[in-house]
Structure formats: structure tokens, C-alpha cells
Amino acid sequence: MPTVQLQRWGDDDLETLRRSNAPEMMTYLGGPETDEKLVERNDRYLRFNRDGTAHMFRIVTAEHPEGVGVIGYWFHDHDGVPSYETGWSVESAYQGQGIATAALLEIIEHARVVRGRRELHAYPRTDNLASNAICRKAGFTNCGEIGYEYPPGNPIRCHDWVFEL
Q1: Of 8, 56, 101, 148, which alpha carbon lies 20 to 30 A from 112's?
Q2: Distance in angstroms (rounded) separating the CA atoms of residues 164 and 147
Q3: What is the pLDDT along the chain (165 residues), one digit of tens a residue?
């Protein structure tokens, strides 16, 4: 498995979001966002990190300190149970190399240290075979198929993967 580092989301990470906004990377996420929406997302990530409601990171490898993707987790309510939810995106050129799995394992450890919630959930679409495989490789348990909305207002079918922290 490759070595990755998670670097706390910073003021200079908007370009990482822009690179992750490619059409082929947004297939399962409702399509590419406008630049205005990306700026808003970047501002949210910075605010979430400041106020502690989420932990957002740039995924870095030794060869690519500028980052090859985004990963994070945030407070979430799953059927009335206070939990965390996680999500990630790795640039197309770096997919299939184990980077997302390595980053997800780092997120699990970070969430364990931060504490506060007992479960970490991920909700990849049922047809997103790669993200479902990443959850399985990271040790998540598939709790079945559920309805979800992402982006809000866009109903999808996804798997509810959970990791007991």
C-alpha cells in the first residue's frame, strides 16, 4: 500500500478541489460544480476545520506534495445515532494505486484519536464499484443498500458502510 499523508485543508487548497472537479471524477457525485460552488466548498472546508464540525484534508504523496485528492469526515446523524460520515476523491491519474484506501485508513485513525463518535459511515453509490471496494479493503462492514440524496435533491441508491471506531 502506498504511503500517504493527510494535510489539514488550507487556504491554498482550492486548486486541489478544481483538479478533483473533472467530469470523470464527478460521475457519481452529480457532475462537476461551477467555479463559484468550488470556492464556496473551499470556504466551507476551511470553516469546518476551524469550528471542528469536520476534518478535511488534502491527500499527499512523497511524489506529489501538492496533493492528489481530498478526504475528510464530519458529524452525521445516522438513524438517530450520532456518527461521522466520510468521503474522498482521488484524481484520475492516481486512482487504482491504493491511495484512497491508504487515506481512508488514516482517516479512521484520526477519527479514533479525535473521538466523540462510535461509528464512521461511508455512502458510495451502489454502482461505484471502486469506492465500495475501498470501503471493503479498509475494513468497513456493508450494512446494506439505502436511499440517499447527493447532492441534496438528487436521490441515489448507495451502500451504507460502517466502521466501528
Answers
A1: 148
A2: 22
A3: 789 999 999 989 999 988 887 767 666 666 678 889 889 989 999 999 999 999 999 999 999 999 999 999 999 998 999 999 999 999 989 999 999 999 999 999 999 998 889 999 999 999 999 999 999 999 999 999 999 887 788 888 999 999 999
The Cα–Cα gap between 44 and 72 comes to: 12
- Which grid cell is 21? 472537479
Using CA atoms, how far apart are residues 96 and 2, in angstroms rounded to an integer?
Answer: 11
Question: Model pTM?
Answer: 0.92
Alpha-helical segments (H) within the chain: 14-19, 35-51, 99-114, 129-137
